[in-house]
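W.,

You were right to be curious about this one. When I first looked at the sequence I had no strong expectations either way, so I just let the prediction run and decided to look at it fresh. Below is the sequence, 119 residues in total, followed by the output.
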Amino acid sequence: MKLLLIKNFFKDKKILLPIIFGIIIILSNFIYVGWKVGLETSMLSLHYNIYFGIDQLGEAYRIYFYPIFSLLIFLINLSISFAIYNKQKIISFYLLCLAVLSNIFLLLGSGLIIIINEL
């Protein structure tokens, strides 16, 4: 019974497409941050606003919180989506789409922080 539920969940193209996009975005976020920052030990600017400029500095490893948080959001939404798939397929789809949307914003956020540190 459980195997049939898993098979139906991943067979649905409306569900599979956001899962694939989410995995691609999360992997690209990890790869981009790892490529640009690497294992750097210096201080980086972690927050910038238009009024005060750079207002938060921190260790370089803290920039990895963006991809980790992105993965966490995706896994939570995926598990909730899987749990309610049989009863509410459309809500399951919307949860996965919202996870992808939040992952896009977190990818943009980590990219902007890296750009600020390169200037």
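Here's what jumped out at me. The chain is about 70% helix and 10% strand. And, maybe more interesting for your project: The beta strands are 43-49, 53-59.

Coffee later to discuss?

I.
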